[in-house]
Every structure is written in C-alpha cells, then in structure tokens.
Q: What sequence folds into this?
C-alpha cells in the first residue's frame, strides 16, 4: 500500500512541476502518468480492486488539481472547492472506467482506450454547463510553444493525445522490461513517438517564419494601444469613483494617442458600474471616451476635397443591463412582476467611422457602439449550471435563486459576433481598409474551439480583455496569460491582450510574446499588429479529435455493456 501511495504522490508531483507557469520541467509530463498506470497494473494482477484503484486515482488527481488551481479560492472559495473536487472526480472516473474496460478484454491494444476516453472527457468538459477546461492536458505546452506549432491543425487536444500516447509507450517499456527483459525496439518506438511531433513543430515554425518574412510587406496592419490600468479589484476598483478611474486612464494613454492610432484596448469591466444599454450614450465615461476619438482625426482628400476620418476605435469592458423577456437568466425589475432585465459582461466597441450601416447596435449623431456579451461564463461565479433544464421545473424559483445567492446569473449571447471597422491606408479616403476583430472576454480565452469560430467568421486579429487581479499574485494569472499563446498558434492570428491587473501583452502568430506589461505595473503597449486573412486547418475544423473520440467512446461503452452481459449470461 505504501508503495502505491508513493506512486500516486509521484504522479501528482510530476504533473504539477510540468504545468505552467513552471517551464523547466515540462518534459516530465511525458512520464507523469506512468506511476499511476503502474498502480493500475496491480488491478490486472488482482492485487487491488477496482474500488481501491479509484481511490488511488482520486488521490493523485486531487493533489494535482489542488496544487495547480488553488488560487481560484481568492475569487470564490466555494467555486474553488467545487472545481477541485468535481474535476478530480471526473479525471478519476476516466481512469477507473479505463481500467474496467481494459481488464474486461484480452486484447493487447486495450491500453489505447485511455486516450480515447480522456479526449472524450476533455471534449465534454469544453462543452457542458460544468465546463472547467483549465487543466486540459494540451495546455501544458503553453510554456513551450515551439514544441506544438502543429496546434494550428489539432488544437490543444492534439497535445493531450501526444502526452497520453508517450506515457503509454513508456509504460509498455516498463512492463516488457519487467516481464521479458530489456527490448531496444520499444525504446526506439517511444523515441519516434516523442521526437516526430517535435520535428514537425520545428518544421512548421520555420515554414511560417519564411512565409511571414516573404509576405510581410503585403500584409495589412493596425496600430494598437493596449492599456493596463492596474486597479486593485479588492481595493479601489469598486470603491473609488468610476470618473476618477477614467480620467486617470485618459491621462495615462494621451501621450501615446495619435490620429493614426487604430484601436485602444481597455480591460474587462473597466466601466464597472452597471449601464443600461439603451442609455449608453448618456454615460459620462463613454462620452469622455468618444471625446478622445473625436479629438484625434485624419484629414483626407477625395476628388480634391478635404474629408475627415476618425480612425480611432476603442474596445472597453463594461457591465451592462438590458430589458428582456422572462428567461432562465433574467431578473425581476424591481417590484414589477412582469418586467425583467438581464445582466451582461460586455465588450463595447466605440467608433465614429463606418463599416456596414446594418452592423450597428446603437448610434447617436454619428457615434456608434457595438456590443458583445461574454458567452463562455464561469460556472457558479457567472452562471448557474443547467439553468435551461431547471427553469421548466423550478420556474420563478430559479429567478429568486439567481437574484439572492452568490451564484452568478449573467446572460450570454446566442452566437459569436465581430467588431468591424475601417482605417485609412494612405492620404486618400478611397484607400481604406475594412477589418474585423474578435472580442474575447477573460475565461473565453481558454476555449480554443470557441475562439476559432470568430476567426472562421472573418476575424483578422484577436483582442482579449480580462481582469486577473481577482486571483492575486499566484500562478493563476500567469497560466491565463500563457494559455493565450496557444490561441495564437491555433488561428495564426495576432493577439492583443489587455488585463486590468495581470499581464497585458502582444502575442504573435507563433505564440511568442512580442511585448508585455508585468504584474502590478500601470503602463501602455504601443504596437503594430498584422491582420490575418488565412484560415488554419484548426480554424476550419475545430476539435475534430474530440468529436472522433466521443463517437469511439460511445462505441466502446456499448461494446463493454454487451460483453459484460454475455459474461453474466455464461
């Protein structure tokens, strides 16, 4: 028993030290599961029961989850406890189910059921109401982006598959050596499995650098300002006056603003006081932001006549409210029984130029505002899980629960939407560039399949706004920043990331941070980013590995039930 416990602790330790933000021991992930899989071997040899193996698995993954995501407690203690306990349970169940199926068959290839089941679990975890994909195994390579340039084909699930296959191959070496002595061919096959993806990645890296260098002059670009106000969410962020925060921010960025600035990016909930969406133009802070746009304009010529073009756009995070019908996410409006409203975590796009007149959400006297509502919401903190299922059963009670508890009750929007705009390419209003941006809010940036939908729809760059100060100075904000690098590789898009507190950065399509503002710094990044019009394989097809694995898992499960029934009959 002591030996098995030590194996569990060793597996958990290897998983932890390989995980971001630690970068020196990433390669440990390729052997991290081997000790736990050796414990599972004792099930095959009938030394321990399935229930005992589940306990060992739970212990391993509990330690791993605790060490890597403990920081969630700073934002929401109950959410942290729930996430760690449940995520541990899901991981342990996958290993337990794998062990049951493997030991119910005589096939030597049964070990490869594990990658199929685990990929199915991760795919489910990306697409249901208890979604918490922070520890998707493919995220481990966020510190070593030069190893996984092929994520532009597979996404992070490709990294998960790589990790599990190498671990199983190392396990096979251990087993064969124990039973039959050392066999060189198993070592060679493991080395090939490990090295081939690395060589492929470096090839793709070089190929993209060559493409980038030869096409640089033909690429369109934007001049962006990424702002990090560095306002402590536990102190002045929600206690000081919003107008003071806005004035301080304007004083910070004015030295960087020119008429050729295309986008100013401000963080999530920079405007932290709730604003009714039909009254956006009455908000004093929004008026000040529009003043910044209107005071910086370009004079252009068309047919010899001077024209004015307002090139500056502003993306700013806000909390907004909207009147709505009764729904699972709506709240009663005061004492009115038949009036409801919804709360949104919103990205606002402020501009005074055109793209298409029919893509405007709100406009007043030539000023235009578009909205995007955060749609990947944090379970518990921002949404009540399974609201759509509970609403028909609980009715008005679910509205009371959402209004009177710490459970979040934000509303998402139905589908992805882009922020479209126009910039000038030369001293002529004829020579203009129409472009589209993906607005990504905080937690959404860890969902590769979701982010790629914006690019598939036409986004040419990705802007992430977040507030990572809730997690304090822990590994949480570092992990969140590093995961954004994987989105850049998957889509081959530039990313501009604005954090209220945390790490703000410019990330190039190779997943390399070109420039960044570190924790607890108040600063602005001024950068030129290239627009991408190409679609990667992953952008077009998304998490195909997850879909294939889910189909195979259903087949495996049905086969397991049939085999079990036949054995019972005999």
A:
């Amino acid at each position: 028993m002591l030996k098995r416990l030590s194996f569990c602790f060793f597996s958990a330790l290897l998983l932890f030290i390989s995980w971001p933000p630690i970068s020196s021991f990433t390669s440990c992930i390729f052997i991290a599961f081997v000790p736990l899989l050796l414990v599972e071997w004792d099930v095959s040899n009938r030394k321990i029961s399935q229930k005992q193996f589940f306990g060992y698995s739970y212990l391993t993954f509990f330690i791993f989850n605790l060490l890597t995501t403990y920081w969630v407690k700073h934002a929401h203690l109950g959410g942290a406890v729930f996430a760690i306990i449940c995520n541990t349970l899901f991981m342990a169940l996958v290993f337990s189910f794998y062990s049951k199926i493997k030991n119910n068959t005589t096939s030597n290839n049964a070990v490869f059921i594990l990658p199929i089941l685990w990929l199915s679990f991760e795919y489910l975890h990306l697409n249901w109401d208890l979604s918490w994909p922070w520890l998707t195994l493919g995220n481990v390579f966020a510190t070593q982006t030069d190893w996984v340039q092929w994520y532009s084909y597979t996404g992070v699930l490709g990294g998960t598959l790589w990790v599990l296959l190498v671990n199983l191959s190392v396990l096979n070496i251990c087993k064969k050596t124990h039973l039959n002595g050392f066999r060189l061919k198993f070592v060679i096959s493991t080395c090939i499995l490990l090295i081939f993806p690395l060589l492929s990645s470096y090839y793709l890296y070089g190929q993209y650098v060559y493409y980038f260098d030869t096409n640089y002059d033909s690429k369109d670009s934007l001049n962006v300002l990424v702002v990090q106000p560095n306002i402590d969410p536990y102190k002045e962020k929600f206690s000081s006056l919003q107008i003071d925060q806005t004035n301080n921010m304007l004083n910070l960025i004015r030295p960087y603003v020119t008429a050729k600035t295309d986008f100013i990016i401000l963080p999530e909930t920079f405007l932290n006081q709730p604003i009714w969406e039909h009254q956006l133009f009455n908000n004093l802070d929004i008026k000040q932001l529009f003043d910044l746009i209107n005071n910086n304009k370009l004079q252009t010529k068309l047919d010899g006549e001077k024209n004015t073009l307002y090139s500056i756009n502003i993306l700013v995070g806000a909390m907004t409210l909207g009147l709505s019908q009764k729904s699972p996410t709506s709240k009663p409006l005061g004492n009115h029984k038949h009036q409801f409203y919804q709360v949104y975590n919103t990205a606002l796009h402020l501009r005074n130029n055109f793209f298409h007149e029919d893509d405007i959400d709100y406009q007043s006297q030539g000023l235009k505002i578009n909205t995007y509502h955060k749609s990947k919401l944090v379970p518990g903190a921002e949404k009540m899980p399974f609201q759509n299922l509970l609403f028909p059963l609980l009715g008005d009670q679910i509205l009371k629960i959402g209004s009177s508890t710490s459970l979040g009750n934000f509303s998402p929007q139905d589908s992805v939407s882009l922020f479209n705009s126009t910039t000038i390419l030369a001293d002529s209003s004829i020579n203009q560039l129409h472009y589209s941006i993906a607005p990504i809010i905080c937690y959404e940036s860890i969902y590769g399949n979701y982010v790629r939908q914006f690019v598939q729809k036409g986004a040419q760059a990705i802007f992430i706004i977040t507030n990572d100060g809730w997690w304090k100075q822990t590994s949480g904000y570092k992990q969140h920043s590093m995961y954004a690098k994987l989105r850049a590789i998957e889509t081959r898009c530039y990313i501009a990331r604005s954090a209220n507190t945390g790490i703000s950065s410019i990330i190039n399509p190779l997943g390399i941070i070109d420039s960044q503002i570190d924790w607890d710094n108040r600063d602005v990044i001024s950068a030129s980013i290239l627009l991408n019009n190409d679609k990667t394989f992953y952008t077009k097809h998304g998490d195909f590995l997850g879909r294939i694995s889910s189909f195979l898992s259903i087949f495996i499960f049905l086969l397991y039930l049939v085999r079990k029934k036949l054995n019972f009959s005999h």
Remarks:
- Residues 7 and 270 are 47 Å apart (CA to CA).
